[in-house]
Amino acid sequence: MDLLVVGAGEIGRWVADTVDAEVAFTDLDEPTAADAAATRDARVVSVDTSARFDAVCLAVPMSAVPEAVATYADNAERAVFDVSGKMQAPIKAMRRHADGETASFHPLFAPPRVPGTVAVTVDNSGPVIDSVFQAIREHGNELYETSAEDHDRAMETIQASAHTAILAWARAADRVPDAFHTPVSEQLQDLVETVTEGSPHVYAEIQQEFDGADEVAEAARQIADADREGFETLYREASETTSDRRRHD
User: Fold this and answer.
1) Ramachandran region of residue 140, left (φ > 0), alpha (ψ -120 to 50) or beta?
2) How many angstroms from the chain centroid is the CA of residue 213?
3) pLDDT tens, 23-32?
4) 248 has a pLDDT exceeding 70
5) Which of 53, 131, 212, 221 could serve as a FRET partner for 230 with CA atoms 20 to 30 Å apart?
6) pLDDT 10s digits, 143-152
7) How far apart are CA 94 and CA 148, in angstroms?
8) Can you tell me the distance from the alpha carbon of 52 to that of 73, in angstroms, rounded to the nearest whole number?
9) Average pLDDT for residues 83-94, to the nearest whole number?
10) Are 91 and 121 in contact (CB under 8 A)?
């Protein structure tokens, strides 16, 4: 299979390392594409290439996917898929511009932490998408099939809200000796390190594309303003919500 990967960042490189294909990279930053190709058996094509490929993968920022689909759908002989992290907008763009197989994959991890879970919505199945599906699984990842709507709704909580809570704690917390850390604060510090080892551009894109930050800010304000009785009520509500989630998992 000939595969054009549009976007030569970490996720685009993960795709190239995962899918069994002859890979070509293209990127608005040509040195980035050249670097990705140089460390793999891959080549570089210009961003305005007219070459045709069995499949095109969009590994670009979420906000850029619809335009990228419109630009590169004609380069695909058989399949178009994205790995951007948002699903409804890419699927909508693929339905409009792509004729063949289409899907949206979202690796729920940073590439240095592979393997992991990959969410997927297959909108138009076929042998090429099936081969991508199989390659991801063969590399030790777990695929979770979902709808684009359910995926994007979940991202408001597991990404936008979670990142807001973790970064807010990092900004608010005073520096303390390690000996003072409790099991809770120690885990929070580990989470801060996990989040901040990534790219601020990627995390800014997530916050821009998904709601969730305001809800965390409002919840924190309720806790900060609560008296003793009010705090105990909020605590019990949180405990009950957690218990309900465990029962439904």
Assistant:
1) left
2) 17
3) 999 999 999 9
4) no
5) 212
6) 999 999 999 9
7) 13
8) 10
9) 97
10) yes
The two structure tokens encoding residue 146: 């979902």
Whether 157 contacts 30, CB under 8 Å: no
Which amino acid type is present at position 225? D
d(CA 36, CA 246): 42
Six-digit token string for 230: 């009010």
Which token pair is 65? 């996917």
CATH superfamily of 2-146: NAD(P)-binding Rossmann-like Domain (3.40.50.720)
Percent of the chain with pLDDT over 90: 86
